[in-house]
Amino acid sequence: MGGGGSALRVCADHRGGINWLSLSPDGQRLLTGSEDGTARLWSTADGTCCALLQGHESYVTFCQLEDEAAFTCSADCTIRKWDVLTGQCLQVFRGHTSIVNRILVADNQLFSGSYDRTARAWSVDRGQVAREFRGHRNCVLTLAYAGAPCVEEAVAGGLLVTGSTDGTAKVWQVASGCCHQTLRGHTGAVLCLVLDTPGRTAFTGSTDATVRAWDILSGQQLLVFREHQGSVICLELVNQHVYSGSADRTVKCWLADTGERVRTFTAHRHSVSALKYHAGTLFTGSGDARARAFDAQSGALRRVFRGHAFVINCIQVHGQVLYTASHDGALRLWDVRGLPPPRAAAPKRSLSRLFSNKVGCAAAAAPLQPA
């Protein structure tokens, strides 16, 4: 199984919990957003802090790192754009009237979701609202974007998919701001959302303990995945398999096209709060303050990473290093060399990027316990 390896480096510069961790597309930098109201840029080469991003007036809820700019959103109702070389704030996006919970940069547009029940599209260059998406009856928790040529010409400009605590997901035409479809079926808040690469199918996870698959163009519910016993907190979609992490302390693997459950990953002592698939290994982060590495093919536990004091909110993998960010305020770097190779060659095609959502984890889980 493998024991708990020592961290290569512990980065404890933040003075509050880390809510999110983003890896740049080129793999050279990491961005952390914290309860202390700051974000920090880190080098993946040696784990050193490259820049301190200061300016938000409340805690940072989420962040996204691009090669040339960093983006953060906050409980201060704003979004900020930063220079990744100097740490200077380049733009402040104002307009939301409550906590901005999620942002997404795609096709030179910035999308945001807020507790004010709206999602918005912004011009990345001008910092102005280009479109407002109104219709949810409660907080917008998660976002995904399907851009051209993923979707048909009838929805030129792309589609934005939002999940909410009102129990629905909505599909919006970005060009017009109109609601294209409302995806109804969940009986609890939609906590996480992921799209397949063709941009036609959305998978949503909810506090109702189900995962559901939807055709986003027609609004039809395609499948319901019903074996979890607690809230579905995070999703990963890769190699035509859906991985769902839950408050029931398990991860389940499902066939994306049929909904058949093919594997269950156990050993967690608390809610599963983060997932990342990498090179045949499924990495998980948990409310028990530990990260784990499983053989994705067999489900066997290969390694446990111990050292954090509280829930692990986000994980990333680059090269031979696992990065974990925790509510204890630390970013830890772990050596993942020596993990047994997967038993079978992974399928060639990966279907999607992860757009999971961590808001609601605290509500879905019991009080956190130190390791």
Task: Please provide a written account of the structure.
By secondary structure, this protein is mainly β. It has one domain: YVTN repeat-like/Quinoprotein amine dehydrogenase (Methylamine Dehydrogenase, Chain H, 7 Propeller), CATH 2.130.10.10. It has 1 helix and 32 strands. The strands form 8 sheets. A 4-stranded antiparallel β-sheet has the order 1-32-31-30, with no helix packed on it. A 4-stranded antiparallel β-sheet has the order 2-3-4-5, with no helix packed on it. The radius of gyration is 19 Å and the shape is globular. The two termini are 19 Å apart. The C terminus is likely disordered.
How would you briefly describe this protein structure?
The chain is mainly β and 371 residues long. The protein has one helix and 32 strands.
Notable features of this structure?
about 375 residues, mainly beta, Methylamine Dehydrogenase, Chain H, four-stranded antiparallel sheet, 1 helix, 32 strands, disordered C terminus
